[in-house]
Specification:
The protein is built from 5 helices and 6 strands. It is of the alpha+beta class. β4 and β5 form a beta hairpin. The longest helix has 15 residues, at about 80-90.
Length: about 150
Amino acid sequence: MCLVCSAMAQQASGDKDIVARINASGNIEVNQPAELGARLCTEPAAQTDASDAVDHKAAHGKVGYRIQVFDDNNPRTARGEAQNRKHLVESRFPYLRAYVQFNSPYWRVKVGDFRSRSEAEAVLEEMGASFPGLRAQMRVVRDHINVAD
């Protein structure tokens, strides 16, 4: 359990402001208002055992794989081309979700939420057969994925 969430458990027991002390290689004291703790904590304050650490980790996203089908930094055309590529892929593969991402100066389109690289590579082969002209630009990349457990 993270420090913030354990401090939220303290708050649930009646403390208004959170003061957490850590004795590891020195004394570290964290003082924060209760409102800040409520904004930072992503899990209920009542969770206090070690089995909840897995749920806390899943709430922050899972690392997996996606297929990148577009990557460009041309300021005049990249955004429109990214949207076109997204619609093209979604029309041919409606069961896959496509994501347009902008990380300055690059526009990227990534497809799918795959837990394993082999699963992504199998779909990449299928996409390459459907779009032979785009095959050279497609590749499997590691990314944070959306998973429904």
